[in-house]
Specification:
The chain has 244 residues and is mostly helical. The protein has 2 domains: 1-104, no CATH class; 106-244, Up-down Bundle (Four Helix Bundle (Hemerythrin (Met), subunit A)), CATH 1.20.120. The protein contains 8 helices and no strands. Helix 1 (2-18) runs antiparallel to helix 4 (82-94), helix 6 packs antiparallel against helix 7 (193-213) and helix 7 (193-213) packs antiparallel against helix 8 (219-239). The longest helix is centred in the middle third of the chain and has 35 residues, at 107-141. Residues 52-241 form the Cytochrome c assembly protein domain. One of its GO terms (biological process) is cytochrome complex assembly. The chain crosses the membrane at residues 22-43, 49-69, 81-99, 111-136, 161-180, 195-214, 221-240. Keywords: Cytochrome c-type biogenesis, Membrane, Transmembrane, Transmembrane helix. One of its GO terms (molecular function) is heme binding.
Length: 244
């Protein structure tokens, strides 16, 4: 099924260059195939299937494609780029092959990892929306023709949704991680660099989310804050490793 998923992703890339709707259809089919593969593996192992970065990136990439498909319903302009998502989906699915199976068989562990994946995806989408909004504002101020025709108000509201989802998912990640370490190691907290970095990110997004909620930050600074948050999340994902 994984080979079929890769093949359809490749076809979605080719089709997206020629016919947008066909590209979107093939992307939807590809994500569905990956989801079925993931669910089957999850059911077989009775846990989140992957233990290393390759597996996490594989899931995150396919979740990103799924979010793109949902957003393309609202943002018509981004629906013009199914071929880009075809590349993202193909490369993400390819990372499944070197992914290592998880040694843990725990629902708490599975939920901990899944909420972490969603928080990473939400942070990246938030950063992308922020960069798009800043670019559009810069072009409008200089009376240039906008690269994308997307309402600024809609981008602004989407940024708010993104930061809130990231904060909530990070909260669940920390709570579920604490419960899992309690059941596995016998205590709620372990001195792990990844957990410390994740806690710092939780504080950062808590501050950013609440400053926006209380209207204590300007829209431009909020967007810049989202970009910084995305950078920090990517550094945590790629540069910080678990000690255990």
């Amino acid at each position: 099924m994984l080979d079929l998923c890769l093949g359809v992703y490749f076809l979605s890339f080719l089709a997206g260059l020629i016919q947008r709707r066909l590209g979107i259809f093939l992307l939807t089919l590809s994500v569905t195939l990956y989801l079925l593969y993931f669910i089957r593996l999850f059911y077989t192992l009775k846990s989140f299937p992957y233990a290393n970065l390759y597996g996490v990136l594989s899931v995150a990439g396919n979740v990103t494609v799924a979010v793109f498909l949902l957003m393309s319903i609202k943002f018509r302009d981004i629906a013009r780029f199914p071929y880009l998502m075809g590349v993202v989906g193909f490369m993400s699915t390819l990372l499944t092959y070197p992914a290592e199976q998880s040694p843990y068989r725990s629902l708490l562990y599975s939920l901990h990892v899944m909420t972490a994946v969603i928080s990473y995806v939400s942070a990246v989408i938030g950063g992308t929306l922020a960069a798009t909004r800043l670019l559009l504002e810069w072009e409008l101020k200089r009376k240039k023709s906008p690269s994308l025709f997307m309402p600024l108000d809609l981008l602004r509201s989407s940024e708010k949704i993104s930061v809130n989802i990231t904060f909530v998912m990070l909260t669940f990640t920390m709570v579920l991680g604490s419960l899992w370490t309690r059941s596995y190691f016998g205590r709620h907290w372990i001195d792990d660099p990844k957990l410390v970095a994740s806690l710092a990110l939780w504080f950062y997004y808590a501050l950013l989310s609440h400053m926006n909620l209380l209207k204590k930050i300007s829209p431009k600074r909020f967007s810049i804050g989202l970009l910084i948050g995305t950078l920090l999340m990517m550094m945590n994902l790629f540069l910080v490793r678990h000690a255990v």
